[in-house]
Specification:
The protein is 48% helix and 12% strand. The chain is an alpha/beta fold. It has a 6-stranded mixed β-sheet with strand order 1-3-2-4-5-6, with helices on both faces. Strands 8-11-14-7-15 form a 5-stranded parallel β-sheet. Strands 9-10 form a two-stranded antiparallel sheet.
């Protein structure tokens, strides 16, 4: 007989308890409710439990092995045949442990020995629920990564792209945005980490605000006051209660930028927030619930962060439950045209100017540049060029000034060989003609065939380059 059915969906689907001993059944129910679970189904009959399970979804099943009528072993076999992903926990007497172990071999998630200890029962169920959550996330991730279209493209509108790598990140964000676990975003300075964090927020179903704070340079006291707030009288000058950013971001998202620079003392406090989902305002002895999604961002590489002696390993692993690695602009140059066009349009609108066109050679020029400042640097270039523009086609001069010397520096930095040499040689030296031809070919490749830009890279005039190209064809 079914005894009770809670209406509150916590967890998403019920925890099903099946035991012919009414006292044991209600004791388990009480233990779960004390632990905060309230979506529970109770059955004294194995047959009724199996019939209900065949028509409804559930997250965890706890079965007594020995029951009149249908036993727990029979119900386990039926569940595993039709619902193989639902974790089943077997409740057994001391003299039935061998049977419980046999059940584990045929698909049971765990077994607990009677008389049942409330903490052991709840702990086993929590582990089973974590497994169910991971199963769902894996399915969502697989479906999202294979999808041709985004479910919510508006969430990614600020991120202009044609890059397959960025589009794959969008699909990953849609897959993980509905989970409660932290997200770690890594990327070079200027790559747009905050925009990606906003995309995670906008892709989720949260109702709260998106709140961002740069934690670099915050000492421990300032960090605690900024995130947790304080009560009146907590310290000298605390004349009124102050809410922290965790409270401001209730049911929303809190972005902690430059997390790699967080002090060791503050790391301990943040770790507690993630583990316990609670925090203490300064001067307050009662914990408050943390109900915001945490996103951490850093311009340090993921390997550097993991290997750092100044960053806690346990915090690192908690933060990187989901990881978004943003590729630098130099590795996705197909995005330069769409970003440039967007920035020119944006700046022209801000300055009440007609959007200017630009010469095709500009894209060739930008294609040779390494963009150490990434998307933000391209935006600054566009802003400067449009600001000084008066009429006609957008001049390339501002872009030349911004990139000219840095092209040479980048080429030097990435082409240095042993002992500081800019060129490395094989055992057999090439002839002057051969090395000249190689240089010209490389410069033309980098400039997308634009001889004016290739000549600049080589430090010669366009006429001289044209003459050498003709000689190349002859020999």
């Amino acid at each position: 007989m079914s005894i009770s059915c809670s209406q509150a969906p916590n967890p998403e689907y019920p925890i099903v308890l099946v035991d012919d001993d009414r006292n044991a059944l209600h004791l388990m129910d009480m233990n779960f409710r004390v632990a905060g679970f309230d979506n529970i189904m109770l059955f004294e009959s194995g047959r009724e439990a199996r019939e209900w399970i065949s028509e409804h979804e559930c997250d965890v099943i706890i079965l007594d092995i020995i029951m009149p009528g249908e036993s727990g072993v029979e119900i386990l076999q039926a569940v595993k045949a039709t619902l193989p992903d639902v974790p089943v926990i077997m409740a057994t007497g001391v003299n039935e442990v061998d049977t419980a172990i046999a059940c584990m071999k045929t698909g049971a998630f765990d077994y607990i020995v009677k008389p049942l200890e409330g903490e052991r029962v709840v702990s086993s169920a929590k582990n089973a629920l974590k497994l169910r959550q991971l199963q769902r996330e894996y399915i969502q991730l697989s479906q999202a990564m294979m999808a041709d279209e985004l479910r919510n493209p508006a969430a990614f509108e600020p991120l202009k792209t044609k890059s397959p790598r960025i589009l794959a990140i969008f699909r990953y964000i849609e897959a993980v945005s509905h989970t409660k676990y932290p997200v770690l975003i890594t990327g070079e300075t200027g790559s747009g980490k905050e925009l990606f964090a906003r995309a995670v927020h906008d892709s989720s179903d949260v109702s709260g605000m998106f709140v961002a704070v740069n934690v670099a340079g915050l000492d421990d006291n300032t960090f605690a006051d900024t995130l947790f707030g304080h009560v009146k009288g907590a310290f000298t000058g605390a004349e009124a209660e102050r809410s922290g950013l965790i409270e401001t971001a209730t049911d929303g998202t809190l972005l902690l930028d430059e997390i790699g620079d967080l002090s060791p003392q503050s790391q301990v406090k943040l770790l507690r927030v993630i583990q316990e989902e609670e925090y203490f305002p300064i001067g307050c002895d009662a914990p408050r619930k943390c109900s915001c999604r945490l996103i951490a961002a850093t311009n340090r590489s993921i390997d550097e962060l993991a290997a750092s002696d100044t960053f806690r390993k346990d915090l690192y692993f908690r933060l990187r439950t989901h990881h978004i690695a943003i590729p630098p602009l130099r590795e996705r140059k197909e995005d330069i045209p769409v970003l440039l066009d967007s920035f020119i349009e944006e700046v022209a609108a801000e300055q009440n100017k007609k959007k200017p066109s630009y010469p095709r050679e500009l894209l060739d020029l930008l294609g040779t540049y390494s963009f150490p400042g990434n998307v933000r640097e391209l935006q600054a270039m566009a802003r400067n060029a449009v600001s000084v523009h008066s009429r006609g086609t957008l001049s390339m001069e501002a872009f030349r000034q911004a990139t000219g010397m840095k092209i040479e520096e980048h080429t030097l930095r990435h082409s240095e060989g042993p002992c500081g040499s800019r060129v490395t040689f094989h055992e057999t030296l090439p002839t002057l003609h051969e090395i000249q031809d190689e240089l010209i070919t490389e410069a033309l490749n980098r400039s997308n065939g634009n001889q004016s830009i290739a000549a600049k890279l080589l430090g010669i005039s366009r006429q001289s380059l044209s003459y050498r190209c003709k000689n190349m064809k002859q020999h």
